[in-house]
Amino acid sequence: MKRARIIYNPTAGREVFRKHLAEVLEKLENAGYETSAHATTREGDATVAARDAVRRGFDVIIAAGGDGTLNEVVAGIGHFDKRPKIGLIPMGTTNDFARALRIPREIDDAVDIICQGDSIPVDVGLMNDRYFINIAGGGRMTELTYEVPSRLKTVIGQLAYYLKGIEMLPSIHSSHLRIEYDGNVFDEEAMMFLIGLTNSVGGFEKLAPDSSINDGYFTLLILKKCNIAEFIRVVTLASRGEHMDDPLVISAKAEKIVVTSKNEVLLNLDGEYGGVLPATFQNLYQHVEMFVPLEKLRPQDQVKKIQ
Ligand SMILES: Nc1ncnc2c1ncn2[C@@H]1O[C@H](COP(=O)(O)OP(=O)(O)OP(=O)(O)O)[C@@H](O)[C@H]1O
């Protein structure tokens, strides 16, 4: 019998996962998994619990929480040579990663996907020595996501980002950025840069429309220096996925990106504070294996499943 370890964040999102734990355990047992669960107690605990699960030989780790919990689980298993497969039960507010992988928000449906057993390899990002699964970025604008108070985020979800964005508009300014990406160099003032692994960020599902979750490449987006009116124009275009051809936007695919600045530029990693530049971003090709609804994935993400 295979063994699964559920790592859940009891404080994530709106729903209380614990209330559903018995039925989730039963479903997994019926699907042939001997399952146990760990409730995280603080920030970073999912990383410790995931590391522990690898050492104890679990075949599968199921992250029940938001992107933050999944990020911590990936950080916990990332350094090991033999990594358990990951299942995801989206319990967060934005659940960007689950959205990109077409994993449904309903607990029951998400568990069904794990029980069905289809899985694909997924790329993971490494910034200096920290893992990310969805997006990294820097510049005044990306500070938004961690300035949104978490209680506000839980109550009104992604709307909080937009509200905070409007409030912060007057304070948006450019920074000097030197970005080396696979042999190319950008060295100018810019508003922000984003390094994406998936196509879904902060509710913007078409931010990196042609990204694939397992091709070994990041999508790099740079927004050049502009005024507030231009900035609003590009963000509006981005909400519709129509920003890629805008003259203020540089986009590229890259495996390795090195970013430095003459200014102090704060970084954002999967929606959390990620330190300051300089930073080296490395795409770890197909580093984790995740359970997904294979038939619902976009064609470019449907890598032949590994048995
Ligand atoms: N018991 C706990 N008390 C407080 N914080 C916790 C606890 N367990 C985990 N955390 C922290 O909560 C953070 C956010 O959790 P998570 O991402 O699961 O939910 P979310 O913020 O609601 O969702 P999303 O990231 O999708 O918006 C995690 O990064 C984790 O460090």
Automatic annotation (TrEMBL):
Q: Which domain of life is it from?
A: Bacteria
- Metal-binding as a keyword of this entry, yes or no, is yes
Requisite cofactors: Mg(2+)
Q: Which residues form the signal peptide?
A: none
Q: List the keywords (alphabetical).
A: ATP-binding, Kinase, Lipid biosynthesis, Lipid metabolism, Magnesium, Metal-binding, Nucleotide-binding, Phospholipid biosynthesis, Phospholipid metabolism, Transferase
Residues of the DAGKc domain: 1-131
An annotated Gene Ontology molecular function? kinase activity
Q: Does the keyword Cytoplasm apply?
A: no
Q: Which Pfam families match?
A: DAGK_cat, YegS_C
Q: Which NCBIfam families match?
A: PRK13055.1, PRK13337.1, YegS/Rv2252/BmrU family lipid kinase
Stated family: Belongs to the diacylglycerol/lipid kinase family.
Q: Which PANTHER family match?
A: LIPID KINASE YEGS, SPHINGOSINE KINASE
Know the name of this protein? Lipid kinase
Q: What is the lineage of its organism?
A: Bacteria, Bacillati, Bacillota, Bacilli, Bacillales
